[in-house]
């Protein structure tokens, strides 16, 4: 199997081969909702950190009893539906946080109505860069550490934390190397495939994943590169583990070369800088990383990051994408549109996706129109 | 003619294209004053908070004061305490005529704001985008109650190019959580000093906090009176005024004076055994929000079923189950102590208290109020953009039935915009439900 084929397998289902192998060996797994929960902490306790996803949910009807479809995002509902359908029965624990109103309630209902052997909630600050917020977050992570240690009888030593930081930093650097391929005029990997690489990564133990990335980097350099494309696109948007939009764009002849999204650069762009105590270092690095729209003081940083990506990856246009009912990414789109001139490339009007590939026709029409807009420039 | 057919619901005209680039503040002020003057003089006082809030905004502009926005869960006592008048930008959206509100809300969507943002905040953004607000010199936003506030803060900050002060809300109610907010409020004082160019005068700050404490105390007594049967407070028209007085103006002398009058009125009614206009047969709790666009809905409930709306969890209960009125002996508190007092109130103000944390806070409060105020039925008027609490509604319904035997109606609405669920449609949802509740009560009586 090539590395890419292995990645496709790992990214296509929740209970993938890495999960099966881990459980067969008696390993424990802890799920988490968002990359503001440091996987290093879970990993340093000897656990497999696994980011939950909504992939392949069989509708959302059971989840909807509590998580109303009137206004709850379908991604959150899909995850809870999977939990109801015992698709996440392999998890030995779950760590939630106040990502947004949808996912925090989804976490609470999962814990209350379905149950999970270990659960923990971290109140992540909505702001970066202040001592008060940093102390609050550090304390939250310390509580998580203590709880993990108690429940799993697994002391998390400073040395173990440092090893986990190194491992995940290596992982981030490898992903950045892969992303750097997108700077080429003729990149050797498609954006939709890169998205699957990232989805696979959060569902695979980091040791195996790093090896896989190294193999992939070697393999793709020998691959035929993509030369014939209509436009280089950056996607800014939501939490999605749904590759539909990227696939549609690339089927239409565009190439997705950059992103600012949760199963994307947000997951790996910023490294943990170790300075002093490892837990403090994790807290500082995570809190001050390129922020997502839940961080109320984060837009200026996100805008600067986006501009940098546009320049570095020779982006021709930005697609703003969100899932229905997502206020946080919704307002980001308002702000990005305000700053379209600063970004210097066309920025699409908000493209609202229905999670689970249900509105492909409409998305195709919108994407085609946007690519044509870029071509006419 | 049945009683219910005598109730006339408000008629709105959404067909006329409105000029939104008007001075909406003064336009609203004129309309509000005109409407109040047409009311029976004996009840005109009920609407005083609207007038006060609008006049304060005008005064802030006229006096060329620094313009300080605050979202409603940042209680304005902090701003009064700095010796300036808060600018009630969200209250303007709340008070302005419904047709304008709807048009501003729609306008915001044409500027790429999401349609699922809380409509109060879409309306506010629409006013901002039409130049209907004064440009802020400072903005204070808390991350509670919900994503809509988190989002609106970012939009306004970016639109006006103003650096906001953010109060991050903790998820729980622990001592540490309160200390965390206290610390941030203290930092906010420094931010305000910097933005408005003057140091805090401790006597002014103490006075603002003292007034706010007094307002909370008065509201506590008012709400305690509602435990009486019949409920002596005909809530329908006064509700919105309470929201304006508390969220918009707590910390001002106007709010204290108005609540004192409110309490006197309630006492007098209670002493005379007065309830609403109709005999009270059912006691209703609105758990969370309530339709704000037409008080005739409440009147219809009373006329048709004798159903008195007793409590309004998401708006009126500016105190919490463990709250006890505090007669603080003297106000010589330090800034730290004052910030701690303000943190307590900000974290417990309605919506903040029920939406910011785990759904258990919401559920526990619902049970507490329904039990203590002897409620027969609950209504969750599900504001369609209110994600955090919509998700608690079904659970609240189950718990209320299991623990108290109280049925709950859940329906979809936009509490500010009758185009989503009109008053007629609202009562159509209610009719079979209240019929069932009335029959149940009759059956239980035998
Ligand atoms: S948007 Fe932010 S909070 Fe939500 S999943 Fe992404 S990183 Fe986490
Ligand atoms: S897509 Fe938006 S609404 Fe859904 S979980 Fe992510 S941030 Fe929340
Ligand atoms: S009604 Fe709901 S959506 Fe609106 S501000 Fe309150 S908590 Fe937020």
Question: What's the structural blueprint in terms of helices and strands?
Answer:
The complex is a heterodimer of chains A (377) and B (446).
Chain A: H1 3-12, H2 17-24, E1 29-32, H3 39-44, E2 48-51, H4 74-84, E3 93-97, H5 101-114, E4 119-122, H6 131-152, H7 158-180, H8 191-201, H9 206-221, E5 232-237, H10 244-251, E6 255-260, H11 265-268, H12 278-287, H13 299-312, E7 317-323, H14 327-338, H15 340-343, E8 351-353, H16 360-376
Parallel strand pairs in A: 1-2, 1-3, 3-4, 5-6, 5-7, 7-8
Chain B: H1 24-37, H2 48-62, E1 68-70, H3 77-80, H4 89-95, H5 98-109, H6 119-129, E2 138-142, H7 147-160, E3 164-167, H8 175-196, H9 202-225, H10 235-248, H11 253-271, E4 282-286, H12 296-305, E5 307-312, H13 335-348, H14 352-355, H15 359-372, E6 377-383, H16 387-404, E7 408-413, H17 423-445
Parallel strand pairs in B: 1-2, 2-3, 4-5, 4-6, 6-7
Helix pairs in contact in B: 1-2, 2-10, 4-6, 5-6, 6-7, 8-13, 9-11, 9-13, 12-17, 15-16
The structure holds iron/sulfur cluster (SF4) (3 copies).
The site of one iron/sulfur cluster (SF4) has 14 residues of chain A, from helix 4, helix 5 and helix 14.
Outline the structure in words:
The complex is a heterodimer of chains A (377) and B (446). With 377 residues, chain A is an alpha/beta fold. Chain A has a domain at 6-156: Rossmann fold (3-Layer(aba) Sandwich), CATH 3.40.50.11890. Helix content of chain A is 50%, strand content 10%. Chain A is built from 16 helices and eight strands. In chain A, strands 2-1-3-4 form a four-stranded parallel β-sheet, sandwiched between helices. In chain A, strands 6-5-7-8 form a four-stranded parallel β-sheet, with helices on both faces. The longest helix of chain A is centred in the middle third of the chain and has 23 residues, at 158-180. Chain A starts with a helix and ends with a helix. The relative contact order of chain A is 0.13. The mean pLDDT of chain A is 96. With 446 residues, chain B is an alpha/beta fold. Chain B has one domain (3-444). Chain B is 54% helix and 8% strand. Chain B contains 17 helices and seven strands. Chain B has helices at residues 24-37, 48-62, 77-80, 89-95, 98-109, 119-129, 147-160, 175-196, 202-225, 235-248, 253-271, 296-305, 335-348, 352-355, 359-372, 387-404, 423-445; strands at 68-70, 138-142, 164-167, 282-286, 307-312, 377-383, 408-413. In chain B, the strands form two sheets. In chain B, strands 5-4-6-7 form a four-stranded parallel β-sheet, with helices on both faces. In chain B, α8 packs across α13, α9 (202-225) runs parallel beside α11 and α12 packs parallel to α17. The radius of gyration of chain B is 21 Å and the shape is globular. Chains A and B meet through α5, α6 and α14 of A and α7, α8 and α16 of B. Residues 34-36, 99-100, 239, 262, 266, 292, 294 of chain A line the site of one iron/sulfur cluster.
């Amino acid at each position: 199997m090539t590395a890419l084929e292995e990645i496709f397998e790992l990214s296509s289902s929740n209970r993938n081969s890495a999960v099966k192998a881990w459980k067969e060996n008696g390993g424990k797994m802890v799920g988490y909702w968002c990359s503001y929960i440091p996987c290093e902490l879970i990993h340093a306790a000897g656990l497999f950190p696994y980011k939950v996803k909504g992939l392949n949910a069989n509708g959302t009807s059971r989840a909807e009893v509590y998580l109303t479809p009137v206004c709850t995002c379908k991604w959150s509902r899909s995850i809870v539906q999977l939990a109801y359908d015992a698709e996440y029965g392999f998890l030995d624990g779950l760590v939630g946080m106040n990502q947004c109103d949808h996912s925090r309630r989804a976490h609470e209902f999962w814990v209350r109505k379905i149950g999970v052997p270990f659960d923990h909630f971290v109140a992540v600050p909505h702001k970066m860069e202040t001592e008060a917020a940093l102390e609050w977050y550090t304390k939250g992570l310390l509580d998580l550490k203590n709880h993990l240690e108690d429940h799993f009888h697994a002391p998390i030593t400073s040395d173990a934390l440092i090893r986990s930081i190194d491992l995940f930093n290596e992982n981030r650097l490898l992903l950045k190397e892969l992303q750097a391929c997108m700077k080429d005029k003729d990149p050797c990997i498609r954006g939709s495939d890169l998205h699957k690489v990232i989805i696979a990564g959060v569902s695979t133990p980091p040791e195996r994943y790093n090896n896989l990335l190294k193999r992939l980097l070697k393999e793709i350099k020998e691959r035929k590169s993509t030369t014939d494309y209509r436009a280089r696109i950056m996607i800014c948007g939501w939490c999605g583990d749904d590759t539909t939009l990227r696939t549609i764009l690339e089927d239409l002849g565009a190439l997705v070369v950059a992103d600012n999204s949760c199963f994307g650069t947000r997951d790996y762009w910023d490294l943990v800088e170790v300075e002093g105590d490892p837990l403090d270092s994790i807290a500082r690095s995570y809190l001050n990383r390129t922020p997502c729209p839940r961080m109320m003081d984060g837009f200026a940083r996100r805008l600067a990051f986006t501009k940098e990506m546009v320049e570095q990856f020779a982006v021709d246009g930005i697609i703003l994408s969100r899932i229905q009912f997502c206020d946080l990414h919704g307002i980001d789109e308002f702000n990005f549109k305000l700053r379209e001139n600063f970004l210097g490339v066309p920025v699409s009007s908000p493209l609202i996706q229905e999670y689970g590939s249900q509105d492909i026709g409409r998305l195709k029409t919108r994407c085609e129109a946007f690519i044509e807009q870029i071509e006419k420039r | 003619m049945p009683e219910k057919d005598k109730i006339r619901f408000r008629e709105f005209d959404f067909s006329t294209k409105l000029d939104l680039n008007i001075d909406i503040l003064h336009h609203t002020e004129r309309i509000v004053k005109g409407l109040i003057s047409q009311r029976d003089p004996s009840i005109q006082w009920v609407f005083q908070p609207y007038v006060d809030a609008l006049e304060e905004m005008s005064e802030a502009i006229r006096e060329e004061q620094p313009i300080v926005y605050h979202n409603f869960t940042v209680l304005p006592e902090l701003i009064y305490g700095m010796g300036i008048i808060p600018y009630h930008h969200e209250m303007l959206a709340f008070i302005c005529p419904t047709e304008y509100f709807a048009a501003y809300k729609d306008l915001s969507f044409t500027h790429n704001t999401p349609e699922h943002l809380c409509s109060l905040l879409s309306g506010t953004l629409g006013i901002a985008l039409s130049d209907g607000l004064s440009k802020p010199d400072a903005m204070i936003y808390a991350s509670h109650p919900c994503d809509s506030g988190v989002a609106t803060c970012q939009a306004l900050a970016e639109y006006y190019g103003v650096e906001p002060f953010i109060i991050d809300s903790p998820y729980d109610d622990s001592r540490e959580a309160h200390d965390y907010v206290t610390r941030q409020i203290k930092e906010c004082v420094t931010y305000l000093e910097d933005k408005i160019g003057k140091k805090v005068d401790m006597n002014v700050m103490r006075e603002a906090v003292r007034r706010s404490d007094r307002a909370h105390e008065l509201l506590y007594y008012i709400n305690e009176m509602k435990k009486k049967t019949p409920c002596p407070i005909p809530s329908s028209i006064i509700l919105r005024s309470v929201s304006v007085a508390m969220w918009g103006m707590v910390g001002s002398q106007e709010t204290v004076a108005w609540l004192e009058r409110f309490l006197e009125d309630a006492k007098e009614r209670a002493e005379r055994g007065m309830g609403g206009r109709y005999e009270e047969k059912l006691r209703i709790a609105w758990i969370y929000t309530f339709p704000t666009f037409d008080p005739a809905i409440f009147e219809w409930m009373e006329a048709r079923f004798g159903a008195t709306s007793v409590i309004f969890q998401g708006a009126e209960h500016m105190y919490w189950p463990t709250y006890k009125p505090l007669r603080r002996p003297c106000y010589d508190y330090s800034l730290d102590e004052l910030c701690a007092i303000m943190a307590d109130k900000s974290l417990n103000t309605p919506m903040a208290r029920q939406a910011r944390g785990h759904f258990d806070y919401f559920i526990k409060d619902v049970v507490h109020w329904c039990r203590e105020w002897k409620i027969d039925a609950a209504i969750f008027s599900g504001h369609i953009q209110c994600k955090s609490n919509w998700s608690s509604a079904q659970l609240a319904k189950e718990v209320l039935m299991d623990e108290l035997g109280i049925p709950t109606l859940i329906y979809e609405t936009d509490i500010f915009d009758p185009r989503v669920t009109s008053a007629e449609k609202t009562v159509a949802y209610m009719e079979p439900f209240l019929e069932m509740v009335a029959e149940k009560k009759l059956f239980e009586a035998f």
